[in-house]
Amino acid sequence: MSGSVEAEISMKQYLLGELAEPQQQELEQGLMTSNECFDRLLVAEDELIDDYLRGTLSAREEEKFDDFFLRAPERRRKLRFFRSLLKYVGANTENSKTIWRWPEFLTFRPFPHRIIEASLAAALSLIVLGGSWLTFRIQHLNHLLEQARSQTVPAGERDDGQRQQAQLLARNDQLTSEVQFHKGQRAVLEQELARASTPQLSSPYMIRFAFTSGTVRSGGEMKKVTIPPGATWVQLQLDLGASDYRKYQTVLQSAEAEEIANQTTPSIKIGNDVEGVVLTVPAKRLPYGDYSLKLSGVPAVGDPENIGSYTFRVLQK
Amino acid sequence: MGIVSSVPVTKTEWELTPEAFDGLLSWLNPDREQAGRKYEEIRRKLITILSCRGCTCPEDLTDETMNRVTRRVPQIIDNYLGDPALYFYGVAHKVHLEWLRRNGRALVPPPAPDPPEETEQEHECLEQCMEHLTSKSRELVSVYHREEKKAKIDGRKELADRLGIGVNALRIRAHRIRAGLQECVVLCLSKTRQNEMDTQRIDNRGT
């Protein structure tokens, strides 16, 4: 048996409370002095939970898992988390190969429902292609129209002139109406494109607004946010920029300095390599008016240190 | 053997002072920032070890251990040789034995099933947190947990090859992403609950 397999088995026995005392102490000393060993234990713990949920543990292991492993509250939380994770992965397996993604500027996050995403992607592609074709077609027709308008009748051909002029006028009318038709079509497509490009609610009840560092801090231009009537929750995301504290305090106040929310949390990833904090408040607590968001870094020792203050205005819903 | 869910730890009379804490940090590392990291690392490892020993209150026993070591630092700082983490381990072992003596190898009642609404909330939070991941991390987690048995092993090997890393490195990477996700979910759940309580308070005030 290779050393790593042996080590894995020992870890599993240890996690299930089955390792003999001397081996247990030896392993624990390794955990205390080696981060690599400790990482391996955490991985083994995750995989034990995964095996349990997939039903691949033996009956005896399952019993030990229930009676011993789940004693620690943290492990019960982890089990619940894994259950959700496997459910999520199971639900998203069929559609996880995304061919097309929303560009970042269109939305703060991709659509949760892959079918909607795929349909909108196809619709948007059609609109873009159709729009390009219509632009080309309109330009071509305009060009023909100009040609028709600028065409002059030679002096010696007056007899045929009137007939030709009548034909040209008819052609002119036809081209004009064709241009009008295509312009109308284009307008419809552009409206559809605009609808598809509007930032979406990230869920049926939550809307998200991002505050990036340096752009909306107080003293700059006030950010305006519109909360749609259907939204019940508002999520405010603050980009932390280069700040590096263990925790951050976020205080949301109305223009009258009434405190609406106050939270202290660690940062989380809010985008590609972007650290931030997220404050979620009920939409009804943000009626029309001005608000300020104060962000402070909480050091390990001492009082919170001010990082910045963001101001924004909620417009009429 | 009795049934004990969470037994309080007998706290020492001694109070942790800033000076004593500074002494502990200096022992761990002359650089205060690195000392702070080392402190957190030791604490985290002790909590894990005590959980692995079947302890129902690992955080409390760890805090007791940290306090006892902090108090002992002035006596050991000049003579102790080796990794301080092992000293903490020795003290934690003793604290755990004392706890066992007081409580016996207690049985804990099986955990109550999760309330359905809590599970639902957790799932919603997880969906939100998954969207905060980079597309690569999201894909890694999805592929890592997708298959079962042989297909799972093959799938992970293929994924590791694609990423140009070994399977063990992939397992650690997947673990770190999951750990971040779990932290995000915990945060999201606490916010949701806080918001619900706030809304409830406002509604009560309104009526």
In short:
The complex is a heterodimer of chains A (317) and B (207). In chain A, 48% of the residues lie in helices and 21% in strands.
Keywords:
heterodimer; A: 317 residues; alpha+beta; five-stranded mixed sheet; four-stranded mixed sheet; 7 helices; 48% helix; 21% strand; elongated; B: 207 residues
Please tell me about this protein's structure.
The complex is a heterodimer of chains A (317) and B (207). By secondary structure, chain A is an alpha+beta fold. Chain A is built from 7 helices and 9 strands. In chain A, helix 1 (3-15) crosses helix 3 (35-54), helix 2 packs across helix 3 (35-54) and helix 6 runs antiparallel to helix 7 (158-197). Chain B is mainly alpha-helical. Chain B has helices at residues 18-28, 32-52, 58-76, 84-103, 116-132, 135-144, 149-163, 167-206. The interface between A and B is large, with 71 and 70 residues.
- Spatial shape of chain B: extended
Helical residue percent of chain B?
over 70%
Helix fraction of chain A, binned, reads 40-55%
What is the overall pLDDT average of chain A?
Answer: 74
Order of helices and strands of chain A: HHHHHHHEEEEEEEEE
- What fraction strand of chain B? under 5%
Strand ordering within the main sheet of chain A: 2-9-8-4-5
Helix segment count of chain A? Answer: 7
Topology:
The complex is a heterodimer of chains A (317) and B (207).
Chain A: H1 3-15, H2 21-33, H3 35-54, H4 59-67, H5 73-92, H6 114-150, H7 158-197, E1 206-211, E2 223-226, E3 233-239, E4 247-254, E5 259-265, E6 268-271, E7 274-282, E8 289-298, E9 305-315
Parallel strand pairs in A: 1-3, 2-9
Antiparallel strand pairs in A: 3-7, 4-5, 4-8, 6-7, 8-9
Helix pairs in contact in A: 1-3, 2-3, 3-5, 6-7
Chain B: H1 18-28, H2 32-52, H3 58-76, H4 84-103, H5 116-132, H6 135-144, H7 149-163, H8 167-206
Helix pairs in contact in B: 1-2, 1-3, 2-3, 3-4, 5-8
